[in-house]
Amino acid sequence: MFSHDLNAAAKRLLADQKARAERERQRLEKERILAERQKKREQEREEEARRKRLEQLEAEERAKEAVYEEREHNRGVYLRVELQALPADEAAIQAKGVKRSKDKLILPPSVGADLMNQDASKNGAMLFELTLPRQPPTTVSPATPQQPAAQPYDQQPSTPHSTPGSAARDTGAGPGPGSTTFPSSSGSGRTHAGVLEFTAPEGTVLLPRKVVQSLYGSLDAQPYGTVVVSYRRLEKGSYVRLQPMCHGFHEAAGEGLREALEGELRGHSTLTEGDWLTVNHGGREWPLRVQELQPCAAVSVLDVDMAADVVPSLEAEEYLRRWEEEQRRQQQRLEQLAAERQQRVAAEAAKAAARQAAA
């Protein structure tokens, strides 16, 4: 009896020892797994940090290369600044009799000083590229001086866009002016301009109406947020293709088409593909879109002799598109009716054959 109790106690002791040993093994295994996971997470964090550092270095290198290439293209001049966009007081500008004022910016004095330090005037007239920032617009620093109360643009009536076309006429029977309206064209977020003076409050740029329309892609746009202003040296333009917004521009301009276009271009320093121009003729404003430029997508129009084509208007294109769609629908309907007729004829022939066979 006593021996049996000792054996049982020994077995229990051995079982307890095995259980403790198993628990200790499991604890050590768990700690090992946790340590490996922690080490893996740390390695992943280090790898992610290393990857981000490399990406940052590569981005900085690309930015340096871009600045170098831009400076080379601009013959030693580099300027890129983000400024708060405000409308220019065009009535006051026109009262001064300034030439080519339709696309001239008013920039802050610090920008003028920067360009003067780089001797930018050696390249001739100062021209700039304006783009919308990729990031959400930033606010002007509180230290920025008070912004002037600039006159807002007059809201012009929303008229259909006309498209310039070949120097030929706007052919084809199209709807009359105002019969078709078009949504505001989505802007490319990019245009070019000259400079009027360097008197804008620091941190701001004053934009004329043409620049605002072209930059934001709408005829009734108002400036908002910030824009990126970059110095650019542009090639002289040799060719422009324009498209009126409304049907009837060619007829209204008549033989004075060339003079009307030349008069409008004399108000500009630059042109960019996608820009909006406004030709005043016959007591009406005719919006035209810049469809194509040569030799580049953005050119200087200072002291140049450009060839110009005016293609059929957007209204005429829309009318033709709808007519072609209607013709396609009618053709599809005719084909459907012909197919149904063939099916009926085949069915009647089959019935007749069946009756003859039964007889």
Set out the fold topology.
Elements: H1 2-73, E1 80-87, H2 90-95, E2 104-106, H3 109-117, E3 127-131, E4 162-163, E5 190-197, E6 204-207, H4 209-216, E7 226-232, E8 239-245, H5 249-253, H6 257-265, E9 270-272, E10 276-281, E11 284-294, E12 298-300, E13 307-310, H7 314-358
Parallel strand pairs: 1-6, 2-5, 8-13
Antiparallel strand pairs: 1-7, 3-5, 3-7, 4-8, 8-11, 9-12, 10-11
What does this 3D model show about the protein?
The protein has 7 helices and 13 strands. By secondary structure, the chain is of the alpha+beta class. The protein has 2 domains: 73 residues; 228 residues, Ubiquitin fusion degradation protein UFD1, N-terminal domain (Barwin-like endoglucanases, Beta Barrel). It has a 6-stranded mixed β-sheet with strand order 2-5-3-7-1-6. The longest helix is centred in the N-terminal third of the chain and has 72 residues.
Task: Name the features.
single chain, 359 residues, 2 domains, six-stranded mixed β-sheet, five-stranded mixed β-sheet, 43% helix, Ufd1-like_Nn, Ufd1-like, UFD1_N2, polyubiquitin modification-dependent protein binding, Ubiquitin fusion degradation protein UFD1 N-terminal subdomain 2 domain-containing protein
